[in-house]
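Limitations
The structure tokens in this dataset are predictions for the assembled complex, not deposited experimental models. Users should treat interface geometry with appropriate caution, especially where small molecules or nucleic acid strands are included. An illustrative entry is reproduced here so readers can see what is and is not provided.
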Amino acid sequence: MAKDLSYAAVMARRGEIMKKALGVEYEEFEQGGIVFDYEAMMTKAAYPFEEVRRIQREVGVGDTPLLELKNITELVRMTSRPGYGARILVKDEAANPSGSFKDRRASISAYQAKKAGYPGLLAATSGNYGAAVASQAAIRNLGCIIVQEVFDSRKVGQPEIIEKSRKCEAFGAEVIQLTVGPELFYMALRILEETGYFNASLYSSYGIAGIETLGWELVRDVRERFGKDPAYVVVTHAGGGNVTGTARGLRRAGAHNTKVIGASVDLSGLHMASDHDFNRKSFTTGHTGFGVPFATWPDRTDVPRNAARPLRYLDRYVTVTQGEVFYVTEALATVEGIERGPAGNTSLAAAIPLARELPEDEIVVVQETEYTGAGKHPQAQLDFARRNGVEVRRGDPKENVPGKSIVIPERFDQLHVTEMDLGRMRRSYVRNAVERNGLKEVGPREVKFLAEDSSQSEEDVVKILEDLGVKVR
Amino acid sequence: MSERCKPGDIVEIHQIILAAGERAAGVPEDTSKVPLEAWIKGKALTEASVGEEVTIETFSGRLTRGVLTTVSPGYSHTFGPAVPELAPIAQELRAMLKGGRSHG
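Predicted assembly:
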């Protein structure tokens, strides 16, 4: 008998579909109610670090060059107070097989899928991750289906995403191109059920373990060349995996004084699931539309427990504007001779003003680049923005209004970051935990878990809970 | 672009995944008023004209059916035209570097 493919019926089967498609028994880590053992999940439902390194070496992933941006550092020092302006280094993740750090995540999922006997891999993503999964599937001779959100209802798609469809197809993958909407997940479930493929989730522990090598490698390389640890590592933040995995790698390398700073493009005010707003964004990733909701409630994904939990690791979270990212993309190409991005340069745009805070002998590492291609290019993206009614002009980036205007800075010294209030995000995490689980009363175990999961003190958690009218035993 | 495909041609098909009334609860109002649509590429199994239904074998080997939209679909995205707001940045930054620290 044919299965009921209606939205309600498929969503009702999500638990069993996901379990079969990942092969992880999440119940093993559950400790009752909201509490689960995060570290046990990260250890048992993944591979040991040395094994991850070996798997990645086997498929040409990782050990990417760490490049010093000498001219950009010089421009930073020219626009800093005397003696200030840290050295900026960038980890050239575009050197991975499919052109981004996402190969690190996909490599572990592909290895696991092959080992467990799955016929192929599926990922629901409009980002570089699709190409990474398609590339790793090609290396392991596995089938691959990428489900992407590409078009608005006029079948108009951002050139950046259309390029990502092309790239997946270049690696032999099937791409299902969808119109806007969160039902991307429903479609992914339907196809997982139909094909028996492995769910190459961005949010499984496999997906996160693969990034730990990035943080670990950069510490090793900085120490070897400069005899010290980086002061800041700046990470483009969207779904939270990049922050989580990199920070875990930094800790593994023992770089406990290095600050982890998340950076996103400010797209506040644009609704991510809106047919109209979809093409008013000129960035399809690395923005606050993912960065804020995923940090303040991680368990909104295609796995029961998200391994990406950025609030555990973020020391600071800053935003930059779209115009600033395009400006630094141009700077990277024309004064460093490195054409990358644009979206992956979000962390570089933030690193420039952040480096001004530090003395010259400190080091700031931008932990990724991504490949550039047709459509995935400042000219293509700005032209698209203009044709969709977004004003493009030069001026002070502080005048940038997401979805209305993209302001390209007039001067290098105008690059700036806006500090996000992490305290507010931590409060909002606790509020989400209460509201989504209907919590009326909690005990010490819940308080401890909430404190750990959002990096705040138990006293602060208790206070927030009491303000929300939750009884604390 | 041919208006008709033969078996074995690479084509693109269109499917309505969820009709306007079947969208997930909680999607924004503008999104709820339009269907969730999909476009998939693969090898046509039979002859068909654009606008007719056809079954394809996708690149992953699945069989699926939809309305033929394009025969030999390609890519037309580009690096885009020159953008006057970006063009001067190279010279501005290089002049700054040439000027040295006092320029700041």
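Some entries come with short summary sentences. For this one: The two ends of chain B are 56 Å apart (CA to CA).
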